[in-house]
Design a protein that fits this description.
The complex is a heterodimer of chains A (339) and B (331).
Chain A lengths: L3 H31 L7 H9 L5 H35 L11 H14 L6 H23 L9 H24 L1 H12 L8 H28 L2 H6 L4 H23 L3 H15 L3 H26 L6 H18 L7
Helix pairs in contact in A: 1-2, 1-3, 1-12, 2-3, 3-8, 3-10, 3-11, 3-12, 4-5, 4-6, 4-7, 5-6, 5-10, 6-7, 8-10, 11-12, 11-13, 12-13
Chain B lengths: L1 H28 L7 H8 L5 H36 L11 H16 L3 H23 L6 H25 L2 H12 L7 H20 L1 H7 L3 H6 L4 H23 L5 H13 L6 H21 L8 H18 L6
Helix pairs in contact in B: 1-2, 1-3, 1-13, 3-8, 3-11, 3-12, 3-13, 4-5, 4-6, 4-7, 5-6, 5-11, 6-7, 8-11, 12-13, 12-14, 13-14
Classes of the chains: A mainly alpha (339), B mainly alpha (331).
């Protein structure tokens, strides 16, 4: 806990830092509109965005690159914030959105829909992936929620791991029987922003809004929960309600993002650790910083993936290669903030 | 009452041992050449005839024995990592071994073109290199558990996405063969392939049992151990090396069999009803888990042989869920 006096100062500093990060994110979005198989000067990008005249540039920027950039920002945000919530709720630094079975549920749903229901292509199975993720988290919650009187968040983690493992096992077995499902699954698992319908962006934005409201409303309760259950209760926190709300938020944020871009769980794991260094111990601030850092990570990953190789390197691969050195640096730093 | 308590632990051990034997006999009895469990027991005690001896001792025994020994090895290795990191999610995976081994095997399968020796060597080299790299990067005046975990995640996720990338780039049939290996399978093992890793496992396990009191002590925390006169970092490194050897021996021949290392120590802890570190029950639970899973993997969709790793995750997962939901379970 910080002493009250320096806290005022550092709040101002954090706000400035947030603004700087937001500006960087905006610059990155513009940059990602310019970069691609056909490079555009930044000036042309701005003209294309503001001038409604139907030019080739405008169609490239507005119809194909803008949705993709927005998708990167939204999915990054969803994964990152879900990661913060998962780590605070379970008080485990290993927690990532996937720990509650989101990835496993989504991939099993994809295998079933492609292998047995004959669904084809990404835009066909995205709905199944989302439903699979939702359903799985619900089951994880039912199995692993702490009973009244027992308090260990380990229970929830173990239940997520257990159910996730079972579903992954079933999914792998089924996909080894159905080659076409295996083919689709390996493309989805890697995580990519390529060839997504622009209608997905709107749906994702709607889901994220709900998730973010839930997250913001429970940030304070999570802070008091971090002090231990008894302290939280004496501070007037309704523990059971907080847990349910946070879980719901994680499910919606991570489920929607994962369904849209694939299993890029690493961003949700990595961004909160970086944010915690900048934001200190308050969940609300950590969420705010993560909401900017995580999209940057995914956006950079997507951009780099477009220019690094003549074909295209999937954003999921680049994200891991970008994020891992950062994570290791943080871990080796003097004060890796434990939970 | 006291007597019952005193007898509870040994009798649980005996039950576990009997279950292991039972599963093994069942595993040996089935297949193309069907035998009754009774026939199997007769053959095991030396009363078999030509073909029966051949089937049991040459064909089925290597696999059945490997399942037991490998399961125990994975469980012990997981137990060490969970003690050292003091995290229930700790497993050999956190030091990146399995992912690195898969990377090595994938390179061997897609670039060199596969083959038993190439795949094993690739897995071994990949896994050991990764583990070494993680330990090196996590070193900073010692290895705090938290730092080891973070570095391990970092390296593993790079390798994992590289693995996904390789699988995506490969031809579908090569990719599926790689996925079977990557799930972990005991298909097609013979004496020649299982004896070297078994010897290694037994040696490591004995060393681990000899040092179990130190491992128990390490759970008290680094500072206390130092105060008690232990050379903490050296002891930790020794345990990590033993644990990595255990998992390396298994992975090089059977692929990264998931979940046994993670779940066996947890199950053992609950079966024994004590939170103390107990290596023997853990090893037995691991053996039972892998042997039982392999039995199912062979028979469930026969003649299609599933990779055993697919079954271990389901088996281990379901049992963990059951334990979590038992009313009396204290988690």
């Amino acid at each position: 806990m910080r002493a009250p006096a320096p806290r005022g100062v550092s709040t101002g500093r954090k706000l400035i830092l947030l603004l700087v990060l937001a500006a960087v994110l905006l610059a990155l979005v513009l940059l990602s509109l310019a970069i691609g198989s056909r490079q555009l000067p930044l000036g042309d990008v701005v003209t294309a965005l503001t001038d409604p005249a139907p030019t080739v540039e405008r169609s490239i920027v507005v119809e194909s690159r803008l949705p993709r950039a927005l998708l990167a920002v939204l999915a990054g945000l969803g994964l990152g914030v879900a990661g913060v919530l998962a780590q605070s709720l379970t008080r485990n630094p290993l927690a990532e959105p996937g720990i509650l079975g989101v990835n496993a549920g989504a991939s099993l749903a994809i295998v079933i829909s492609v292998g047995f229901l004959g669904v084809q292509g990404f835009n066909g199975y995205v709905v199944f992936a989302f439903l699979g993720a939702l359903l799985t988290t619900a089951v994880v919650y039912l199995v692993g929620m702490p009973r009244p009187g027992s308090s260990d968040p380990v229970r929830l983690v173990l239940s997520g791991v257990a159910i996730g493992a079972v579903l992954t096992g079933v999914g792998t077995a089924l996909s080894l029987i159905k080659p076409q499902a295996f083919d689709q699954l390996r493309a989805w698992t890697i995580g990519s922003l390529q060839g997504r319908d622009s209608s997905i962006v709107l749906t994702l934005a709607g889901c994220l809004l709900v998730g973010l409201v839930l997250a913001a409303s429970s940030a304070r309760s999570l802070d008091s929960l971090a002090l231990g259950e008894d302290s939280a209760r004496s501070l007037g926190t309704n523990i059971g309600r907080t847990r349910v709300l946070v879980l719901l938020a994680i499910t919606i944020l991570a489920g929607a993002s994962t369904a849209a871009v694939g299993a890029i769980g690493f961003i949700g794991l990595m961004a909160p650790h970086a944010a915690r260094r900048l934001a200190g111990a308050h969940t609300g601030w950590i969420i705010a910083f993560t909401a900017l850092i995580a999209p940057m990570l995914l956006l950079c990953a997507d951009m780099l993936g477009r220019v690094l190789l003549p074909g295209e390197l999937q954003a999921g691969v680049v994200a891991a290669f970008l994020g891992a050195p950062l994570l290791i640096m943080i871990a080796r730093g003097k004060k890796a903030v434990a939970l | 009452m006291n007597l019952r308590k005193a007898l509870a632990a040994p009798s649980t051990l005996v039950i576990l041992l009997l279950l292991c034997l039972g599963v093994t006999v069942l595993a040996i009895s089935g297949g193309e050449y069907q035998m009754s469990p009774w026939q199997v027991v007769r053959v095991l005690f030396g009363g078999g005839e030509g073909i029966e001896n051949m089937v049991i001792w040459q064909w089925r025994m290597p696999r059945a024995l490997a399942a037991l020994v490998f399961g125990a090895a994975l469980a012990l290795s997981g137990s060490v990592f969970q003690s050292l990191t003091r995290n229930p999610l700790g497993s050999p995976d956190i030091i990146g071994f399995s992912t690195g081994a898969y990377t090595g095997a994938l390179v061997a399968l897609t670039v060199v073109g596969g083959g038993y020796v190439a795949t094993s060597a690739g897995a071994l080299i990949g896994g050991l290199l990764t583990a070494f790299l993680v330990y090196l990067l996590a070193w900073r005046n010692g290895t705090a558990g938290f730092r080891l975990i973070l570095v391990g995640i970092g390296i593993s996720s790079v390798l994992a996405s590289f693995n996904h990338f390789m699988v995506l780039r490969a031809e579908l049939d090569v990719a599926m063969a790689a996925a079977v290996w990557g799930a972990g399978t005991l298909n097609g093992l013979s004496w020649a392939t299982v004896i070297p890793p078994m010897v290694l496992v037994v040696l490591c396990a004995l060393a681990l049992l000899a040092g179990s009191s130190r491992l128990q002590m390490l759970q008290l925390g680094d500072d206390l151990c130092r105060a008690l006169g232990m050379r903490v970092e050296r002891t930790k490194l020794l345990f990590v090396v033993l644990a990595v050897f255990l998992v390396a021996a298994v992975t090089s021949v059977a692929g990264p069999i998931a979940f046994v290392a993670l779940v066996a120590p947890q199950i053992a802890r609950r079966v024994m009803g004590s939170s103390r570190l107990q290596l023997l029950p853990t090893a037995l639970v691991g053996a039972l888990l892998l042997a039982g899973s392999d039995l199912l993997a062979q028979r469930l969709f026969a003649p299609v042989q599933l990779p055993v790793g697919v079954v271990t995750v389901c088996f281990g997962g379901v049992y963990l869920i059951y334990l979590l939901n038992r009313r009396t379970a204290k988690v």
